[in-house]
Every structure is written in structure tokens, then in C-alpha cells.
Amino acid sequence: MYQAAETLGVTVDAVRGRIKRGTIEHERDGNRVYVILAADESGTGRDQTNDQYGESGALISRLEGEVEFLRDQVRRQQEIIAQQAVTMRQLSAPSEAPEDARRAAQSEEPPESTGGPENQSSRPWWRRIFGG
């Protein structure tokens, strides 16, 4: 029975279950049970099990490779985002030197009183374009 289980690639309990159900040919000789296997049954279970695990192993290896590739991609994207955040902070941070220069220029020159629209050259470019 142990040899039959190994040949079929199943457990001894599975062979006993097949004997009880009558789905496997067998002979009893006192306390011994002999399992009779057909030529097409011998070795099929074990080979299928090994092939299944072999294919699964290849699939697992391939998936592990893909996971590592995707982790690298995520790491690269996080680095790019961090660099962009630093650049955005630098662009949005007010620089103090032009502001101080503008204040100094305003205190030295009195504002023009033409009665018309504001002097276009003294307004910042973004106010000239967007208003304000």
C-alpha cells in the first residue's frame, strides 16, 4: 500500500479511501492488501505533482522578479516626486533681496500723481498681466 501511494503520488490514507470506495483494484491476503495498478496509472500522480510544482516554481520566480521591478519603479517615482517638491518649495519661497530693493526704491521716489492709471513700469509683471 505504501508503494502504491508513492507511485500514485498520494498519501496512504488516500489509497485506503480508494480501497474502501472500491475505486482502485486491490487484493487481500490475510492482513495484507495488495494494490493492483494499471500500466497507465503507475507513476502518473507523482509526475503530475512534480510538474505542477515545477510550473508553480517558475511562476513564483517570474512574479518575484516582477514585484522587484515594480518596487524599483515606485522607489524611482518617489525620488522624482521628492525632487519636484524641493523645486516647488524653492520656486514658491519669496526671495528677500528683490523685496528689499523694491521697498528702497519706493521710499526714495515719491509716487507719481498723474491722476491716470498707475505707472505700468512700477507694477510687478504679474499684476500687469493678471490685474490687481
* SS field, number of helical segments: 5
Could you say which structural class the secondary elements and strand pairing correspond to?
mainly alpha
Rg calculated over all Cα atoms: 42 Å
Helix content: 55-70%
**Stretches with pLDDT under 50, minimum 5 residues:** 44-50
What portion of the residues fall into strands of 2 or more residues?
Answer: 5-15%
> What is the N-to-C order of secondary-structure elements (H for helix, E for strand)?
HHEEHHH
How would you describe this structure to a colleague?
The protein is mostly helical and 132 residues long. It is 64% helix and 6% strand. The chain has helices at residues 2-8, 12-21, 44-92, 96-108, 125-130; strands at 26-29, 32-35. It has a domain at 2-92.
Quick synopsis:
With 132 residues, this protein is mainly alpha-helical.
